[in-house]
């Protein structure tokens, strides 16, 4: 099922409401006072989100699960230091990103960092393919190989684009929350988001023998942004 | 307002964010109607956003929740929440029960103590007794063997909480109780062994 409707009216709002902020604040206060088991209730809405973010950074399911568990443990340990100045979800995602990046550094995955990571963001991105796109039915996601190829395409982007894209377009966080979670400006979020969307579009494009053209691999060779 | 393809590509993301000046948005839509390339860019970006934003795109690995719960249990609940904790707890309980049973059987098989001080108390005074903080015995208030801070409880409470009578001051008190001194009147305390007989 599509969870977005790109009608004209819809184009003006993409925010997804978080669980009630007041309810969360009350839960956090009770946990800090000793009702520790309420922590499960506090994190329940974010379990999948934390895993997906860790997975997007680490690109490995087992590592992502470990990182997610560590992130929740750290969140529990340092919950006493959480201040209601920011949303709990944003704070939790910051903890998750830090945990995943730390794990990544430890496993020396940065050696495999794509070359476009050093790319200057100020340069304009030119779409490479202009083949006609039909609307892709969401039922396509029921096919495992389609999902795997979408994941592979996302994984081929540089980390800074993956991080922004997953927070905004996968987890539907606002531009402001995304910027806060990543410690960058809203303008940088928008720039990276534009590039990430256009790169993914080209990677998946029918005209570039993307997955919709019936071929089994993400196109190889030089990427349009390199 | 007229826009070029470059303008469209630069603003296509903001178009989907709804973060455009109305005039620019209108100009872009007029451009889409005339430019197949930009229409392709718009449709492709829309598909990307919709597909990756679909809830079905990412799924949690099987067994994620129980593993997470198990990992958190030690911190959040202490040992009781983890399966390992449950096993340890059950083993400890079984061991304690075995020890208690062994101690009871062993206790019944032993001869009763003969020394006067070791005999079960026949009566405990009903006035309050003193328990020194951190100590293991209870005393008659004013006992010279009391040191440090103390608090007052009834003798029944002291026995129930596992404190033993002071061998010196309580011995004197019990002897006085044997003389039926009114101030030490109280209910008779009968040991389990005595009751069994």
Structural write-up:
The complex is a heterodimer of chains A (226) and B (197). By secondary structure, chain A is mainly α. Chain A has two domains: 20-112, RNA polymerase sigma factor, region 2, helix turn helix motif (Rna Polymerase Sigma Factor, Chain: A, Orthogonal Bundle); 128-213, Orthogonal Bundle (Arc Repressor Mutant, subunit A), CATH 1.10.10. Chain A is built from nine helices and no strands. In chain A, α3 (47-58) packs antiparallel against α7 (159-170) and α5 (88-106) packs across α8. Chain A starts with 20 loop residues before the first helix and ends in a 23-residue tail after the last helix. Chain B has 197 residues and is α+β, with helices and mostly antiparallel strands. Chain B is built from eight helices and four strands; from the N terminus they run αααααβββαβαα. Residues 79-90, 121-125 and 179-197 of chain B have low confidence and may be disordered. Classes of the chains: A mainly alpha (226), B alpha+beta (197). The interface between A and B is large, with 61 and 43 residues.
Q: Which tags fit this structure?
A:
heterodimer; A: 226 residues; mainly alpha; Rna Polymerase Sigma Factor, Chain: A; Arc Repressor Mutant, subunit A; 2 domains; 9 helices; 51% helix; 0% strand; disordered C terminus; B: 197 residues; alpha+beta; 7% strand
Sequence-ordered SSE layout with sheet pairings:
The complex is a heterodimer of chains A (226) and B (197).
Chain A: H1 21-32, H2 38-43, H3 47-58, H4 61-77, H5 88-106, H6 144-155, H7 159-170, H8 175-182, H9 186-203
Helix pairs in contact in A: 3-4, 3-5, 3-7, 4-5, 5-8, 7-8, 7-9, 8-9
Chain B: H1 5-17, H2 22-34, H3 36-53, H4 64-76, H5 83-109, E1 129-132, E2 137-139, E3 150-153, H6 155-160, E4 164-165, H7 169-178, H8 192-196
Parallel strand pairs in B: 2-4
Antiparallel strand pairs in B: 1-2, 1-3
């Amino acid at each position: 099922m599509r969870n977005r409707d790109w009608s004209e009216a819809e184009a003006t709002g993409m925010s997804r409401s978080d669980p009630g902020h007041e309810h969360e604040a009350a839960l956090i206060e009770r946990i800090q006072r000793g009702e520790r088991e309420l922590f499960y209730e506090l994190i329940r809405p974010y379990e999948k989100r934390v895993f997906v973010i860790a997975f997007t950074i680490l690109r490995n399911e087992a590592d992502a699960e470990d990182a997610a568990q560590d992130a929740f443990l750290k969140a529990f340990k340092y919950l006493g230091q959480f201040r209601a100045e920011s949303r709990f979800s944003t704070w939790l995602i910051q903890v998750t990103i830090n945990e995943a990046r730390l794990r990544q550094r430890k496993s020396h995955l940065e050696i495999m960092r794509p070359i476009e990571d050093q790319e200057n963001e100020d340069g304009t991105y030119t779409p490479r393919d202009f083949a006609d796109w039909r609307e892709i039915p969401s039922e396509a996601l029921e096919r495992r190989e389609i999902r795997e190829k979408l994941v592979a395409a996302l994984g081929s982007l540089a980390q800074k684009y993956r991080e922004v894209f997953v927070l905004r377009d996968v987890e539907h966080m606002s531009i402001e929350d995304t910027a806060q979670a990543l410690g960058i400006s809203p303008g940088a979020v928008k720039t990276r988001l534009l590039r990430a969307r256009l790169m993914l579009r080209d990677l998946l494009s029918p005209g570039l023998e993307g997955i919709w053209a019936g071929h089994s691999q993400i196109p190889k060779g030089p990427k349009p942004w390199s | 307002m007229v826009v070029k393809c470059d303008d469209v590509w630069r603003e296509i993301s903001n178009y989907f964010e709804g973060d455009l000046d109305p005039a620019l948005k209108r100009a872009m839509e007029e451009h889409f109607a005339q430019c197949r390339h930009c229409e392709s860019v718009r449709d492709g970006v829309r598909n990307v956003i919709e597909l990756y934003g679909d809830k079905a795109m990412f799924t949690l690995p099987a067994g994620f929740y129980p593993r997470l719960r198990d990992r958190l249990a030690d911190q959040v609940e202490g040992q009781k929440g983890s399966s390992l904790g449950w096993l340890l707890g059950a083993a400890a309980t079984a061991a304690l029960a075995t020890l208690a049973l062994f101690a009871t059987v062993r206790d019944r098989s032993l001869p009763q103590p003969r020394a006067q001080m070791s005999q079960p108390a026949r009566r405990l005074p009903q006035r309050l007794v003193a328990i020194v903080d951190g100590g293991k015995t209870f005393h008659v208030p004013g006992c010279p063997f009391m040191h440090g801070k103390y608090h007052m409880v009834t003798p029944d409470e002291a026995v129930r909480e596992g404190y033993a009578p002071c061998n010196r001051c309580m011995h004197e008190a019990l002897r006085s109780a044997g003389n039926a001194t009114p101030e030490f009147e109280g209910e008779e305390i009968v040991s389990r062994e005595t009751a069994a007989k």
